[in-house]
Structures are given as structure tokens and as C-alpha cells.
Amino acid sequence: MLEVKELGLPGVLEIKPKKFGDHRGFFSETYNASKLLEHKIDLTFVQDNQSYSASRGTVRGLHFQIPPHGQDKLVRVIKGSIFDVAVDIRKGSPTFGQWVGLTLSADEWNQILVPKGYAHGFMTLEDHTEVIYKVTDYYAADCDRSIRYNDPAIGISWPELGGGYELSEKDQRAPLLNETDTGFSF
Ligand SMILES: Cc1cn([C@H]2C[C@H](O)[C@@H](COP(=O)(O)OP(=O)(O)O[C@H]3O[C@H](C)C(=O)[C@H](O)[C@H]3O)O2)c(=O)[nH]c1=O
């Protein structure tokens, strides 16, 4: 049984698989193509990624791959928690530059589906947070793009954690959305 909820931008969904708990612990089908298909989610994932962030307040993103290597992403947290964000980067879209965000956590056991045509990023809310995600195309370094996480034109309300944020060099110097040809059109 799969709970699927729209998050307010086309195709961006919260997905929550069932967790079977007993005295030993729990079991969960974290990915089941046929159950996703029942919710008209017909995607073929080809690569699994995992990232570990040591510190609370680590920001990864906003990232996306331009066509022809755009990636749909199914993201979940197996340790800790993150504030996860998707931004519509499809030129001509009525919701271009708009964002949705939600907290993903190992406790909540929820996932987010971020379709291609959206930039993706997250901020960790706890130390030692581990994120796992499935993608529908292989990593293509020459198609890898970034947009500044705090671009005022997007205006993401990142959680105030009372300290600085931890970012990669690449993310610190990422261009603004209006400086970026995202390659996606509505
Ligand atoms: C994404 C990726 C990266 N790499 C190599 C390239 C770099 O040498 C190293 C770290 O890459 P990066 O700094 O881009 O990793 P993150 O900042 O965690 O980026 C990811 O996090 C945000 C939230 C995303 O949505 C993307 O999936 C992805 O860009 O791993 C690979 O070898 N394969 C890959 O698929």
C-alpha cells in the first residue's frame, strides 16, 4: 500500500511506502514499480545514489541535468532528516521559478518524486544525515547544472538553523536562475 500526495507543483509528489513493524524492527518495500504504476507513475530508474552529510545545515543543490540527460529523482532519507526542495525550471511554465518543499526523514519514512524539468536540492536538519535516491538517467557531468540555493527570484524559505550553512565550492558559486539556460521548456 502506497500513500501518494501532490505537493502543489505538477508531478512533484510525496510518496509514503508502508512500514511493517514487529518486535524485531521493520520491513518496507521502499520501491515497487507496479505500485507506482497504480498511481500512474511510470518511470524506469537506472542508478541509485547515496549521500552522507556530517553536519546539520549542509545544503546540496539546486541541481539538475539538462537534456538529453534530464533525471527524474525519487528521494528518501535513511538517517536523520532534510528539508527537500523542487523548483520548476521549465521555460514558459505557468509555475516557472516556483518551488515546493517538505521535510523528509527516516522517522516519517516519506519520499519525494522530483520530475525532470525541476531543480532539486536539500538542507540537512540533523548531523549524520544519509539520503538515498533513484534517478532515471545516468550521471552526465557535462549536463550537470546548478542554480544558487538562495536565489532571491526563487525565494526558498530554507529553515533557519541558527548557524552558517555548509556548501560545496560549486554550490557557493552557482548562477542565478535568470543567468541559466535550463534547457527545459513547458
Ligand atoms: C550526482 C553525481 C555526482 N558524482 C560525483 C561528481 C563529484 O565528483 C562527486 C560529488 O558530486 P556533487 O558535489 O554534485 O554531489 P551533490 O552535491 O550531493 O549533488 C547531488 O545532490 C543534489 C541534491 C542532487 O539532486 C543531485 O542528484 C546531485 O547533484 O560525485 C557522480 O559520480 N555521480 C553522480 O550521479
Write the layout of secondary structure elements.
Blueprint (H helix, E strand, L loop, with lengths): L1 E5 L6 E5 L1 E4 L2 E4 L4 H6 L8 E7 L5 E7 L7 E7 L1 E8 L10 E7 L5 E4 L3 E7 L4 E7 L8 E3 L22 H4 L14
Antiparallel strand pairs: 1-2, 2-10, 3-4, 5-12, 6-11, 6-13, 7-10, 7-12, 8-9, 8-11
The protein binds dTDP-4-keto-6-deoxyglucose (T46).
Pfam families: dTDP_sugar_isom (PF00908)
InterPro entries: RmlC-like (IPR000888), RmlC-like_jellyroll (IPR014710), RmlC_Cupin_sf (IPR011051)
EC number: 5.1.3.13
Residue windows where pLDDT falls under 50 for at least 5 positions: none
* Class based on secondary structure composition and strand pairing: mainly beta
Largest sheet: 6 strands, antiparallel
Give the number of helices.
2
Q: How would the global form be characterised?
A: globular
GO molecular function: dTDP-4-dehydrorhamnose 3,5-epimerase activity
Pfam family, one: dTDP_sugar_isom
Pathway: Carbohydrate biosynthesis; dTDP-L-rhamnose biosynthesis
Keywords: Isomerase
Descriptive report:
This protein has one domain: Jelly Rolls (Sandwich). The protein is built from 2 helices and 13 strands. The protein has 186 residues and is mainly β. The protein is globular. DTDP-4-keto-6-deoxyglucose (T46) binds at residues 49, 51, 60-61, 63, 73, 120-122, 139, 168.
Quick recap:
With 186 residues, the chain is mainly beta. 5% of the residues lie in helices and 40% in strands.
Descriptive key words:
binds dTDP-4-keto-6-deoxyglucose; six-stranded antiparallel β-sheet; isomerase; Jelly Rolls; five-stranded antiparallel β-sheet; EC 5.1.3.13; RmlC-like; mainly beta; RmlC-like_jellyroll
